[in-house]
Amino acid sequence: MFFIDTMDLQGLGNRSYLAGGPRTAAAVDPPRDVDQVLTAAARRGVRIAYVVETHIHNDYVTGGLELARVTGAAYLVPAGAHVSFARVPVADGDTVTVDSGLDLRAVATPGHTPHHTSYVLREQGQPVAVFTGGSLLIGTVGRPDLVEPRLTEQLARAQHASAHRLAAELPDETSVLPTHGFGSFCSSAQTSGADTTTTIGTEKSVNAALTTDVDSFVARLLADLDDIPAYYTHMGPANAAGPAPVDLTPPAIADADEIAARLAAGEWVVDLRNRVAFAEGHVAGSFNFEADGRIATYLPWLIPWGKPVTLLAETPEQLAAAQRELVRVGIDRPAAAATGTPREWIPEGGSLASFPRSTFEGLAEHGTDDVVVLDVRRDSERAGGYIADSVHIPIHRLHERLGEVPAGTVWVHCAGGMRAAVAASLLDAAGRDVVAVDDGFHAAAEAGLTVVTPG
Q1: Which residues in the chain show pLDDT less than 70?
Q2: CATH class of 256-345
């Protein structure tokens, strides 16, 4: 009998896998913090014999090299990937034995990257699952525009061909186990939270790569591509060079004076508390990235790369969880940290900053004539409808475009409230009067606001 354990990296919208038999196993696309993979193997009582990469990742720092080092496993990396470390190069058709009667067969599936490789898990020679990385995802495919703009259309066509190859070669009941597609911006479309499992047979009936001709598929895929998170620029090179081992030791503790000094020096001070607590009272000049939100996506996307960051948390546990999320995307060591309450983070005699929160109903009751309505959703979201006369600056561009926000009190909204809270903290730190709209966008029309639907 074989097993497959799934490790969800919800902050990044990715999955990693451990698959094997009674004695040995293979880890597929492991995260940088490899302790959870080691724990899964220990729980199963198996030795990790292989560490397998489907491609050189653009959205997170891999733990593959470190996991192979600490376990003595063979490190399988597609032969076409240009890397600076020793590994076992894998070509189309190569097969390794994972355990008795259980093997992995490499299948070249270019598209997400030119060297992308999927791996078919076979029991007694029969396919039971396929690890598809950024190739065939749940209802979609991995985006083809992360390598080189001139290659994008070529890779999009390769995605279509790769999906068809998998569909043609594998039985309908084969489980499809992708790395991306659960919120990752490596996915060309966002997967519904309800869609967590799939098979080759299911994808044949629902996936556009398998239900439309190549020209129509490519045209739609390229038209729907969203902005690429800025930090992706650093992930591919880090993974190709060979990431350093992860360091999760607690950062140095900062007192109120040090926090003030770091703010004065232009460093980023990030408050990890929930957005309600932050709005009620926070260190002036600090930014709010909720620990329970998508901190691993939005903080690295917004922060100037390499700028020191100090983390403020309610508890050591909250701090440690955020630190773990951030090392996965290459933010290795917070410059400093503090835990407790905001009163403890400001010098004696100082005062906390705050700003109001509201809803779309509150905005409708107030009226929009004398305020700035700022929409910080992505372009693709705004294309589905927006509040009349609203200003649009996507959240990932706001920090560098604060000067474009018109004068007046700013009512800022997104699709659900989390990004609006980040934006409100940026505006508040810049000295603007701001109201954070903590509401689902569907409520805008229900509240009587004029929502424009393009087309």
Answers
A1: 188-195
A2: alpha beta
